[in-house]
Amino acid sequence: MTTTSYVASLFSLEGKTALVTGPGTGIGQSIAVALASSGADIIGTYHHTPLDETKSLVEQTGRSFHAVQVDFADPPSAQQDIDALLKQHTIDILINNAGTIKREQAAHYSEEDWHTVINVNMNSLFFLTQKVGQQMLKKGQGKIVNIASLLSFQGGVFVPAYTASKHAVAGLTKAFANEWASQHIQVNAIAPGYIATNNTQAIRDDENRNEEILKRIPAGRWGRPEDLAGAAVFLSSPASDYMNGHILAVDGGWLAR
Ligand code: NAP
């Protein structure tokens, strides 16, 4: 094998099927297209956003795309949808990307918003990982990549449920990794910095907040969804076979500051 083909094989996802939650927009779409470009067929879950654009982008790489509707704010119904999906498909790579955010001062945070954020970002992530993990344990291999956040490490402002849920994502990444590393299932996470997506539209629209954030990012710019593509392929591929429970910041240097 030449050096080039050896390195290419380390990052190849040929013959793999990846389940990506929430690939209709932003980070999820960029990751789904990157995994397909490395050879994986893609299954995407959506709640509201149709996946036609992502399907077209994935199919342009020559890989297949299958969409399934799941509401992660309702964990019992999401679990039924996932059970049905797993009867028909074997998953090699799980990307837990779907996430939501509700902004309000902690003193006025509503119970409804609290439960929605915790259900989508933490509870459904746990149960989906558990179910896909059961399938991977039978197969004796798998890759799981959770999308964490800078708020897996920091407190944030006006987003208490999001912060709690993303700290939990970091904790669950390590908890699952510890149990499954010896079964050849690698569980890791990516902590994106400030990325220009729907999720951050409100703070980008706030001139003062936008300026404050930009000043603090050593790279001097907001991240783009494509900035996460390489890390996602790496953590989904044989190149990361000896990585377990790691949370990889892709943040333009924010945490280093
Ligand atoms: P986004 O474009 O708003 O994507 C969020 C995705 O989550 C959407 O595809 C959405 O699907 C899905 N989702 C939300 N609620 C759902 C529900 N109840 N059931 C099923 N799916 C649901 O924002 P994004 O920035 O790319 O976010 C992707 C991930 O990155 C999230 O976990 C977010 O917390 C994380 N993240 C983002 C940033 C950032 O700066 N943008 C930074 C750190 C971490 P529908 O559109 O179909 O509802």
UniProtKB/TrEMBL annotation:
It holds the Pfam family adh_short_C2. PROSITE patterns: ADH_SHORT. The keyword Nucleus does not apply. It comes from the Bacteria. NCBIfam families: kduD, PRK06935.1. Its EC number is 1.1.1.127. This is 2-dehydro-3-deoxy-D-gluconate 5-dehydrogenase KduD. It is an enzyme of class 1 (oxidoreductase). InterPro entries: 2-deoxy-D-gluc_3_DH (IPR011286), NAD(P)-bd_dom_sf (IPR036291), Sc_DH/Rdtase_CS (IPR020904), SDR_fam (IPR002347). The keyword Oxidoreductase applies. One of its GO terms (biological process) is bile acid metabolic process. Belongs to the short-chain dehydrogenases/reductases (SDR) family. Keywords: Oxidoreductase. GO terms for molecular function: 2-dehydro-3-deoxy-D-gluconate 5-dehydrogenase activity; 2-deoxy-D-gluconate 3-dehydrogenase activity; NAD binding.
